[in-house]
Design goal:
This protein is α/β, with parallel strands linked by helices. It is built from seven helices and nine strands. The chain folds into two domains: 174 residues, 3-Layer(aba) Sandwich (Rossmann fold); 55 residues, Alpha-Beta Plaits (2-Layer Sandwich). The chain is 33% helix and 16% strand. α1 runs parallel beside α4. Bound molecules: flavin mononucleotide. Flavin mononucleotide binds next to α1 and β4.
Length: 252
């Protein structure tokens, strides 16, 4: 079984690619209804998710803490990131250990960047986007071979980047505290009340009121609403103004 979370579609694409080639099932954690899932002997359990501010998204941590499963014999994760993961692997492995399980293998895959809500952050050029996806396909093949062999690692295969501890243990808590707010979201006059943002928000945190999106408090800043809006009408404070949307083929 492969449990996944995806904001804009990158991690969904990875989870579905893995599932297809491993003859496994990819299950969106946002559809989980607290039912117990029995892991069969020899069955692998995978978690696929994006890196948000150098850690797994809170929605993923919460899911691991509450999912009802028996102890997996083989557990792995694949995280997708724009550039680098910081200590995402350690946070994930620690969360899993607290459930009394063990994370046997872990990988990162560089994918097109989706983060736009702060100065200095934007999507990749078409060329970089294309290159990342081609490399990701090769990386997925390698990961599949490892998972088929149920490879066990002492060090996870993630691109941590520079100052990983600082990013994960100092910046991420600040991000969680100050950047998950939905207050800065607004729509411009370009909004055509098409309901796309409402339908594509993975956390069902948007409803249309008088034809305009209204954000609730359960936001993980995945940016799906910003990227999928067909008229680019959704903005986040002043920081997204003029920024391009991710219109890659992998969009959900
Ligand atoms: C809120 C947010 C934070 C992000 N933080 C990081 C990060 O710390 N490091 C990184 O390399 N990419 C980061 N990214 C980029 C995503 O990890 C990457 O684009 C990922 O593939 C998105 O997957 P998804 O489409 O499944 O949500 C961030 C994206 C978002 C929306």
């Amino acid at each position: 079984m492969i449990f996944y979370f995806s904001g804009v579609g990158n991690s969904a694409w990875v989870a579905q690619s893995l599932a297809q080639q491993l003859n496994d099932t990819a299950f969106a954690i946002t559809k989980y209804n607290d039912e117990e899932y029995i892991i069969k002997p020899g069955e692998s359990v995978g978690f696929v998710f994006p890196v948000y501010s150098w850690a797994p998204p809170k929605v993923v941590i919460d899911f691991i803490n509450r999912i009802k499963i028996n102890t997996p014999n083989y557990l792995y994760f694949v995280c997708t990131c724009g550039d680098d993961t910081g200590k995402t692997a350690d946070v994930f492995a620690h969360t899993v250990e607290q459930r009394g399980w063990h994370c046997h293998a872990g990988y990162s895959i560089a994918m097109p960047n989706t983060y736009v809500s702060l100065p200095g952050f934007g999507i990749d050029s078409d060329e970089i986007e294309k290159q990342k996806i081609e490399k990701a396909k090769i990386r997925i093949e390698q990961i599949i071979n490892d998972i088929k062999a149920q490879k066990r690692m002492t060090k996870y295969d993630c691109h941590e980047g520079s100052i990983p501890r600082f990013k994960t243990y100092v910046i991420n808590p600040l991000f969680t505290k100050y950047q998950l707010t939905t207050k800065p979201f607004y729509t411009t006059d370009a909004c055509i009340s098409c309901h796309q943002c409402e339908q594509k928000c993975p956390l069902h945190n948007i409803i249309l009121v008088d034809g305009k999106p209204k954000w609730g408090n359960n936001c993980t800043q995945c940016e799906a609403c910003f990227h999928i809006c067909p008229t680019n009408a959704i903005q986040y404070g002043k920081y997204t103004k003029g920024k391009q949307q991710y219109k890659g083929k992998l969009l959900k």
